[in-house]
C-alpha cells in the first residue's frame, strides 16, 4: 500500500498536485537498489486544475494500489483468507506492528543501524558546511547522545512515542528539550532525504508535546530574566530548519 499526500497547491504553477513514491524496477521486474541497499524511488507528482479533481483522482489511485499492490499481486479470495487467518493468530496485536516486527527480523536486504548511519550523517554535515561550526557541534553532540540509546535499531523501527520518552527522560529545561528535539528531527529529515526511511517519526512534534519536569517551565518570566537562568550550553545556537 502506498501513501499518497495532498492535494497540495503549487503557487508558482497555480496547480494542485498529489505526491507519492514507488520503487523503480529493472526490465526483469526486480527492484533497482542504491549502493546502500535502499530501493531507488520514482516520485510521482501529477498536476490538476482544481482541488476537487485531485481529491477524486487520489481516491481512484489509492483504490487501484489497494487492489493490485505493486501491480504484480492481486488481492484475491485466497489472499483474503490468509489475511483473516493471520488476524486471528495475532489477536489484539495490530497487523502493522506484526508486519514491522517480521520485516525487522527478515530484512529484504542488508540494512544500516542507527549507529552505522550516524557517521554518514556527520560526513554529510561536514560536506555541507565545509567546516565545523557551533551549529554542527551542537548537532553532533545532541544526535550522538540520542543515537547511543538506539544504536542497534533500524531507523524505521523508531517511533514518535519513543522520541518523546527519550526527551522526557533527559529531565532538562524546556529550551534544551526543544533543541534536542529539533536536532533529532534534523537527523531523521536527512534519513528521509537519503531514502533510508519514508517518514520522519520526529516530524510534527510540537512544543506542547514535550514533557517538562515540575518547576522547569518559565511562562511568567520576562525575556530579560530568562537568559540569566540558563547555562551557556542551553543558549547555544538552535538548530535551523525546525521540524
Main attributes of the structure:
4 strands, 3 domains, four-stranded antiparallel beta sheet, DNA polymerase, domain 1, about 240 residues, single chain, disordered C terminus, alpha+beta
SSE topology:
Elements (H helix, E strand, L loop, with lengths): L4 E6 L4 E9 L17 E4 L2 E2 L2 H18 L8 H14 L4 H11 L8 H16 L4 H16 L10 H11 L3 H20 L32 H4 L14
Antiparallel strand pairs: 1-2, 2-3, 2-4
Mean pLDDT: 77
Instruction: List low-pLDDT spans.
Output: 70-76, 214-222, 224-242
Summed up, the domain count is: 3
For the CA atoms, what is the radius of gyration? 22 Å
For the biggest sheet, the summary is: 4 strands, antiparallel
Shape: globular
Distance between the termini: 26 Å
Can you identify the CATH class of the largest domain? Answer: Mainly Alpha
Structural class: alpha+beta
Q: What fraction of residues sit in β-strands?
A: 5-15%
Please, could you describe this protein's structure?
It is built from eight helices and four strands. The protein has 243 residues and is an alpha+beta fold.
In short:
By secondary structure, the protein is an alpha+beta fold. The chain is 45% helix and 9% strand. It is built from eight helices and four strands.
Amino acid at each position: 500500500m502506498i501513501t499518497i499526500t495532498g492535494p497540495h497547491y503549487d503557487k508558482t504553477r497555480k496547480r494542485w498536485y498529489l505526491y507519492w513514491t514507488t520503487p523503480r524496477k529493472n526490465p526483469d521486474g526486480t527492484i533497482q537498489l542504491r549502493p546502500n541497499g535502499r530501493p531507488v524511488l520514482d516520485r510521482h507528482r501529477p498536476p490538476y486544475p482544481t482541488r476537487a479533481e485531485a481529491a477524486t483522482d487520489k481516491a481512484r489511485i489509492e483504490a487501484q494500489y489497494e487492489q493490485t499492490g505493486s501491480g504484480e499481486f492481486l488481492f484475491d479470495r485466497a489472499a483474503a483468507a490468509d489475511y483473516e487467518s493471520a488476524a486471528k493468530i495475532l489477536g489484539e496485536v495490530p497487523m502493522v506492528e506484526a508486519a514491522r516486527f517480521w520485516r525487522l527480523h527478515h530484512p529484504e536486504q542488508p540494512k544500516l543501524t542507527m549507529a552505522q548511519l550516524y557517521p554518514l550523517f556527520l560526513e554529510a554535515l561536514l560536506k555541507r558546511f565545509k567546516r565545523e561550526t557551533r551549529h554542527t557541534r551542537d548537532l553532533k553532540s545532541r544526535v550522538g547522545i540520542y543515537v547511543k540509546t538506539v544504536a542497534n535499531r533500524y531507523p524505521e523501527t523508531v517511533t514518535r512515542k519513543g522520541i518523546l520518552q527519550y526527551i522526557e527522560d533527559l529531565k532538562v529545561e524546556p529550551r534544551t528539550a526543544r533543541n534536542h528535539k529539533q536536532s533529532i528531527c534534523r537527523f531523521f529529515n536527512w534519513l528521509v532525504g537519503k531514502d533510508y526511511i519514508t517518514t520522519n517519526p520526529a516530524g510534527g512534534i510540537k512544543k506542547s508535546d514535550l514533557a517538562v519536569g515540575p518547576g522547569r517551565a518559565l511562562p511568567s518570566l520576562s525575556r530579560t530574566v530568562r537568559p540569566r537562568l540558563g547555562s551557556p550550553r542551553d543558549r547555544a545556537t538552535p538548530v535551523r530548519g525546525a521540524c
